[in-house]
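Researcher: Please predict.
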Amino acid sequence: MSSHITSQNTEAAILARLIQTEQQELPRGAAEYLLSIRFGDRDTARMNELSELARQGKLTSEDQAELDSYIHVGNLLAVIQSKGRRPCSVRLNSRGN
């Protein structure tokens, strides 16, 4: 399935590399905002529908491209949110010690 093949130069991969650079910490408000980003109900329902079609082996090429897009954006969101978690966890750890 093509969703398991990841190009190192997709838009999501390029942005993820930019975000992962070791620059200064995010302000707390920015970190909290990044952590609050979620897929909406409509997108979640569509991802579930596409995933079910994939399990059944019934994806069209257009469906596969759409599912791949959701996967890439989900991966990018995970990277962004990991960047947002770092300042929050550092602050929490420094308060406890």
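Model: DSSP finds four helices and no strands in the chain.
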